[in-house]
Amino acid sequence: MVDEAQLENSEVGRLPNGDGWFVLNVADAGWVTSEAFGSAGFFEKDRSWDIGYTIGVLSPGKPSALYHHESNQENFLVLSGECLLLVEGEERPLKAWDFVHCPPETEHIFVGAGDGPCVLFMAGSRSNEERLVYPRSELALRHGAGVEKEVHSGREAYAPYAKWKPGRPDFTGLPWAEPS
Questions:
Q1: Which candidate, 127, 92, 90, 129, places its Cα nearest to that of 107?
Q2: Is the pTM above the cut of 0.70?
Q3: How far apart are CA 44 and CA 24, in angstroms?
Q4: Higher pLDDT, residue 50 or 77
Q5: What is the pLDDT averaged over residues 62-79?
Q6: Rounded distance, CA 60 to CA 32, Å?
Q7: Which long-range contacts (CB under 8 A, 24 or more apart) does 136-144 make?
């Protein structure tokens, strides 16, 4: 029998304390924000799970992160709003319920589009030997999601940007927002 994990309050939101099962509403999850990259909600206290799950909230014109590829597969589902997928040097418009699968080594990133926030559900496998590459891409640079010179570490790629801060996005208009 698997025990239920207890949820604890932290500076970013409620997170499980332990390996058991739990139920956690997105609005109560751990949230961080970035002026450059929007907001991200997550459900785990550390990176100990085999699969990572994140909810991203992107404002129009803001990328979810920097254009990259990695050694693990990732999957994405647009839950609401619109965004642009930058993938392998191409730009694809996405809308609610579009699903994106990125096998390992697929160059990609998302940029908010439309008139309001875009909500993305992100799931990615993890391995002990994760490799990240941030290639130079003119397309990504045009959208504020690129690096000037190829780098092989997140620390180097994100050095020019302020660190993510604990905090929730404005939930107004988001699928889990309470009615006014």
A1: 90
A2: yes
A3: 10
A4: 77
A5: 96
A6: 18
A7: 137/67, 137/86, 137/89, 137/107, 139/67, 139/86, 139/89, 139/90, 139/91, 140/63, 140/66, 140/67, 140/86, 140/109, 143/61, 143/63, 143/84, 143/86, 143/111, 144/36, 144/61, 144/62, 144/63, 144/111
